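Page header: ASSEMBLY MODEL / two components / 226 residues total.
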Amino acid sequence: DIQMTQSPSSLSASVGDRVTITCRASQSISNSLNWYQRKPGKAPNLLIYAASSLQSGVPSRFTGSGSGTDFTLTISSLQPEDFATYYCQQSYSTPLSFGVGTKVEI
Amino acid sequence: QVHLVESGGGVVQPGRSLRLSCAASGFTFNAYGMHWVRQAPGKGLEWVAVISNDGSNKYYTDSVKGRFTISRDNSKNTLFLQMNSLRAEDMAVYFCAKDNKGASWNFDYWGQGTLVTVSS
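Prediction written out in full:
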């Protein structure tokens, strides 16, 4: 099974900051990496799929990069609505797996 | 507009069974794989199972193999999860989720979830 290691587990940031979250897979997953945003009481929202493709409707301040085992989600200029928990997820092979999440706080 | 509405959650004793349903609308249901994902209290997201668009292929996470069965009724646009021999560690909010590109194994729409509580 593929393990996803996400870091940091939490971070404090301010509006306007550039934020970077990393995700490492326990084996190569090509570009089969996806990023989700989760707000309390809401269903997760797909931000990035296939490592770097922006999901329709998602602001362009969200970018994804990486391939193989190391991946990054970057928020170029943090907005108030971006305070949430972010999860990576590998879609390379079953069982599909998520990272533990990164909580972005003020 | 895509809508996914789960139902069937509740309180159940260990060892008993429960069947979850997910009613889908707003898209061509029989063209997309569908997933169940869960989140236990205070924990992260855990993928549970996937079923292909025509129901011919199913995959499960190891901890539910042999106990849970995913199925679908394309004539009724409904996804199911039959959960048998429930354990305390199965207690979670269960989400159904639509596959993004048919069979890409990422999830572009999610329901709001249904809570399964396993307790004696």
